[in-house]
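Here comes an entry:

___
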Amino acid sequence: MKPDWSCLNGVKIVDLSQLLPGPHATSMLMQLGADVVKVEPPGTGDPARQLGSAVFAQINLGKRSVALDLKSATGNAAFLDLIRDADAVVEGFRPGVMQRLGLDYAALAEVNPRIVMCSISGFGQTGPYSALPGHDLNYLALGGFWSIPVQVNDRVARPRVRLADYAASSHAALALAVAVLSARQNGRGQHLDVSIHDCVMAWTAPAAWTSRDYAQEPMMSPTVMPENDIFETRDGRYLALGILENKFWLTLREALGADCPALMDDRFASRLGRQQFKHEVNALLAHMFLERTLAEWLATLEAFDLPVSPLLDAHELFLDPHVRARGMVREFAHDGSMAVRFPVKFSAGLPDAGDTVPLLGQHDG
């Protein structure tokens, strides 16, 4: 049951998108009360279905599924009927596809003047890259993700989650909520052009702008902090040390100075000093943390007010007492799958969305 107070109750979103960005955006809106109708191609459906039922379920739980062949006259007409009383359409095709199908924003607005159309594409509807293929790594690469130096021993590595897709889905969901509410007030919809590349740049541009001044000497960038890093422990585990404010460095000295006198070096007492001796500070910490196991370090440092955390593995993550106390994860005993709840706690409450994953075309007709 959706909450009566939700501003998205009664909002109908028709979702043509596949894989992650669009479906994740509409999943968030569904958690906030919207009714999401997922339109999939007959036969195979969303390619995410081929990645396994658990993967598909995570961002399509609680939606309805309708199978339509948009290339056919019958499917095209059925889609237009579907959007007559809808608030928004979300699509993730390359620019020009919806127009070739006869389903661009102008065509949809003729059927429903207050429809909001959200187009999520790699590089947007315009610009020299707009027709190029791409996936998450491409948008991160061209969006400057690796242009920002952050570690003394910096290295380029693939991110563990699809950051670009999630950046786009979050911006798309916010824009959709605003545009739908605006259309309900003034009766006029609009076309939202969401570029995954643009959304990456919204995150990277501030730090990348500063990094230009250190292109020849990346180590000199203020974004490289020798004591704000990840360090390996004796047992091959890793520890995150999040020192930013100088008070935490002073606390670290208090906690470990007796065992590691090098921490007491006056050259390192201030942030400015540590920035001048980045290699020395980072090497000192790396050597120090290799002397004990992760468990030993956590036991040693837990009595002090320090931003120190273990890098949890996948099993530890879901057993973590804070994760369990916050109730972020819904586990389904019947098939061992899970769903992530909306990450903002509403004091008025936010009931869980549906518990079922739609079969392909389950809600046809």
Notes: The radius of gyration is 25 Å.
